[in-house]
Amino acid sequence: MNAIGHLLCAEWQKTTGNRWAVGTLIGLFPIMAVVILILTTLVALGGSPEAMARMGIASGGQVAYWPDYFLFAWAIPSTPIGRWLLIAFTAVAFAGEYQWGTWKNLAARRTRASLVAAKFVTLSLLIVASFTLMSLILGFGMLLPVSIAGGTYGPALDGPLLADFAGRYLGQAGLAFASALVAAGYAALAAIVTRAILGSVLIGIGAFLLEEGLAVPLGLLGTLFHRPEIVALIQLTPSYNLQNLLAWARTGGGHTFPPLDLYAQPNSPELSIVILLVWIAGLIGLTLYSFHRQDILN
Amino acid sequence: MLDVQRHANLFRAEWQKIAGHRWATGLLIWIFPMGALGILAIMLLVALLAPPDIQRNFGLASVNGSVDWTEIMLGAWNIPNEMFGRIILIAFTAVIFAGEYQWGTWKNLLPRRRRVPLIVNKFVTLGAFVVVAFGAASLIAGLGMFLPVKIAGGQYGPPLAEALQSDFVRNFAVQAATTFTATIIAAVYAALGAMLTHSILGSIMIGIGLMILELFSMGIFALLGSLFGHPEIVGLYQLMPSYNLSNVASLITHQPSVNPPFLLNYVAPNSLELSVLILFVWVFGLMTLTVLLFRRQDVTF
Amino acid sequence: MTEIALRLHHVAKTFGRGKKQVQALKNLDLEVQAGQVYGFLGPNGAGKTTTIRILLDLIRPTRGQAAIYGRDPRRDHGVLGQVGAIVEGAAFYPFLSGRRNLEVLARTGGAYDRGRIDSLLEQVGLAERAGQYVRGYSTGMKQRLGLAAALLSDPDLLILDEPTNGLDPAGIQEMRVFIRDLVDRHGKTVFLSSHILSEIEQVCDRVAIINQGALVREGAVADLLAGSAELRVEAAPLAHAAEVLAARWPVQPNGQSITVRADRAAIPEVVRALVAAEVDVFQVVSQRQTLEDYFLSVTQSPEANHA
User: Closest Cα of chain A to B146: distance in Å?
Assistant: First the structure.
């Protein structure tokens, strides 16, 4: 194994060795999938038709649309709770080194850039592994309760459906991954600045909330300075562009809302992708830069 | 007398310690009065610079040109009932309880004082911080909004005497008391998490997890009822803190008792006395559990 | 009759369950009389800190009883008011100043006295930096603050776990003088756990050595080392000299010399015996075993390792 391989392997061992954090912050997603599966199977076995309907189990000849089960997992990183958990996980990975006083052991052995890069790569791998596993568990597993309840797991797989599903799956997974990386970027930068897990979590969550509520202060500033078009600056934020891409994928049109629709057209998907890439690269770059210049005191 | 002095000293020590953690208190508790100040500053800017339609959008003057300060003062006490407010308070509790493990400071405290007063004192201090922070936020918002409303040309009512004659004081006390109880219950979840995980993040995760579990408890009970063919199991929801908090708040303000339609098929709503009793059992039960866990714990770091 | 400051009776402690079970202490018996410096020695993982934590009611023993001035700290927590301690390195709130940390601890104990805090900060040499956040303190400064914290309630018994960790040589010497002074002039009792055996040898009246959770040796420092005096004899022919001396004393060949288990008073007799046997004597030197030698001999012997 070469030096980079060893570094990644070390990071993986270290991160997954913190079983408690991995279990509750990232392993939670596949575990949740198993719990959902068990619950739905139990309901399918003994529940009333109303209970099955409430649990969304197709019964008595109804059709369960399996691509939805596969795609469900990838919607989680864009929800507040999913994002907060990913922020907490990133905070443990980055700020944990300050808390445990272990940066001093690592910084002497490798360049700081490679250490931070290894953390981002490992986090990405774990995130992809966790949500892929959840997606597979739900996608294949839900066949069981649906079959027990007498529903149909459809539609039948054929070439065009597979191509369409693969496209949607990759799009959704890519979007989720981008969302997770933005969250990780905020948390990692906050970890370097605050050197504390809790500080990193709070600032990471705060940054997201600030970004999502940005329309209000921008609208206010626009009103106060008689430049209402300032609100269009929201189109530069990651949250807007993630929602915009989602809207393009779902409806074929971009994401907008009043009063934004009065002053700007929605971003094109290409522009949104570029803006997201700039954010991700910018946050990771800023994390690297801050860490590079930092005195390690403990 | 000496005993009172010792308790006062213990409370003061805890207050000094928590307040000294400026970063945590700033972000997790003083953020509420500071947020009230921030909102006030924005309102002043709007009152001074924005056109009337924007001022109306910001609630500076209602349709009949009057803003009710009693509602503003009561509104501040609603923040801990919101999900984000509750999570922030869980994080604050986690710092207070799990921080001692993280800083390795339990070993300094335990030889100086018995475990029970140490833990009880943490709850008391937490309660004091919550009352001060939300009391201040409520006062800042209630008194401060007078200025932007007046600048915008609105009426700030009702007159104090009229408010006192109406149910304001009672409503305020009820709102504050139910919010306080809800906060303490969320805090005890986090404190239990701290005793079990010895870590701030772990405590927050367990606190939030238990809070979410409680939120979904009615659904869980309904599911269990459906599975076992006993739909009346859903009635167990009436034992949960959130149900009883809403029920108490509703009954004290002379409104009908709370009962989701789904629940009505199986059980009658709890009486005021029963709800208060159930809340009492929850708060003291969870606190006792925290104390018991801590009493039996080996402090090895 | 001298008062017993601290007593452990058949104290055992087991951590964990099943395969992860670790027996940290095995029926430990110990008695420390008031008015002395008592050294508590043992290799890493021997159970020293576990013992100290039991005494301070931080952990509960699986079996047996601990007593401080005859009172069980578990049942009668008030007795810990007579105890000051530093446990496994001093730990403080990093976001508070040194002085504020002491204030918090004093108030927690129910006895806040600003004058005493000032005086203690002066005594441990931290008066000038007492206003700074502890997060900026060096290990040695934290240790000094730990000593001040231990002395806050003017305790009769001080339990100090590795108090010289992180101190510079001058600081170590100051600490030694300080500890002796506490006992000799102020009548305190000090229970001192340390790895620096030369320090223990210089400052302690009695020592206990534990290994793998069990007591290996206990006694006055002078008594423990008394029976271990040795003479190094250089003579020729060496084999004949060894044969002559072996008739009266335990002898061990040691390269170009032989080691005789005898004290300094035996030197004339040794020389006479060798001269009488026509052995040429070049040098006879009295060697006293240090506490370090003694410690290593008792903790590394096979019997100690199977204790």
Answer: 21
Q: Which residues contact B153 (CB under 8 A, 6 or more apart)?
A: B61, B65
- E strands, chain B, are 66-68, 155-157
Task: Give the three-class secondary structure for C232.
Answer: strand
Q: Is A199 on the interface with B (CB under 8 A)?
A: yes
The three-class DSSP label of residue A143 is helix
The shortest C-alpha distance from A286 to chain B (Å) reads 23
Output the CA–CA distances (angstroms, integers) from residue C93 to A199, B101, B281, C136, in the order listed.
17, 11, 34, 11
In the block, residue with structure tokens 């690297």: A288
Residues in chain A: 298
CA–CA min distance C165, chain B (Å):
17
Q: Which of B175, B167, B191 is nearest to B79 (CA)?
A: B175
**Is residue C10 over pLDDT 90?**
yes
To the nearest 10 degrees (0 to 180), the angle between helices B69-76 and B168-197 is 10
Neighbours of chain C (3+ CB pairs under 8 A): B
- Are C135 and C145 in contact, with CB atoms under 8 Å apart? no
Number of neighbouring beta carbons within 10 Å of residue A17: 9
Q: Do B202 and A199 touch (CB under 8 A)?
A: no
Q: How many CA atoms lie within 13 Å of A244's alpha carbon, on the beta-carbon side? A: 24
Q: At what angle do helices B241-252 and B200-215 cross, to 10 degrees?
A: 60
- Tell me the per-residue pLDDT of B129-158, one tens digit each, with 9 for 90 and over: 999 999 999 999 999 998 888 888 888 878
Angle at CA of residue A221, ends A216 and A226, nearest 5° = 125
Q: Which long-range contacts (CB under 8 A, 24 or more apart) does A99-103 make?
A: A99/A195, A99/A196, A99/A197, A99/B102, A101/A298, A103/A296, A103/A298
Give dist(CA B102, CA A173) in Å, integer.
Answer: 37
d(CA A82, CA A25): 9
Chain segment C220-240, per-residue pLDDT in tens: 887 877 666 788 999 999 999
Strand, coil or helix: what is C11? strand
Identify which of C305, C227, C298, C238 has the alpha carbon closest to the alpha carbon of residue C274.
Answer: C238
Kindly report the pTM of this predicted structure: 0.85
> Does A21 reach chain B within 8 Å, measured CB to CB?
yes
Tell me, what DSSP letter sits at residue B67? E
Instruction: Give the tokens for residue C137.
Output: 């303190």
Kindly indicate whether the ipTM for this predicted assembly is greater than 0.90, answering yes or no: no
**H/E run at residue C209:** strand C206-211
Show the tokens assigned to A251: 């409806």
Contact C58 B107 (CB under 8 A): yes
